Amino acid sequence: MLRVVFLIFLISLSNEVSANNKDQIINKLKDTLNLNFEFEQNINGTIEFGSCIIQYPKKMFCAYNKKNKVIVSNGKSLVIKSTSSYYRYPLDKTPLNFILDKNFLLKKISELNEENINNSLIKFTIKEDNQFIEIFFDINDYNLIGWQTKDVYQNTAVTLLYSVKSNQIVDEKIFKTPLQN
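User: That's the sequence. What structure does it adopt?
Assistant: Structure tokens below.
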């Protein structure tokens, strides 16, 4: 009997900690106007590095360290530009449409169960419009620290964030999509 009571206590404590993590993530995200970070991106084994700013809702500017590559979202379009190529996509056709939408993330996180990864990450798996998006948060400070998606060509893309700062002053001009060469 004592074992059953102890097991029930552990399960309720685990549920309380889980709810507390989710609540902390939701509160942190609610207070976040923008994120400024360095990133490592792995698309099918090709690794690139750079820096990025996300401005909610749905704006993003990322500069890659090599290849003179930038990615810009103005909230409607997503432009990927390098010295040799230029691609424009409707943002709503990409997984970034969901990642850059704070209200969408808040709603989904409140509905989903979290998964604790090695007591260091909290993962939420979102299934929306035939897309699977895994969103990762740091278990200690509840910062967004990455995501995994499939890109428009169905390549697995893993983006890891580090040196994350929130609510920095941002020049809105950076979200103007670049013109094609």
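DSSP finds three helices and eleven strands in the chain.
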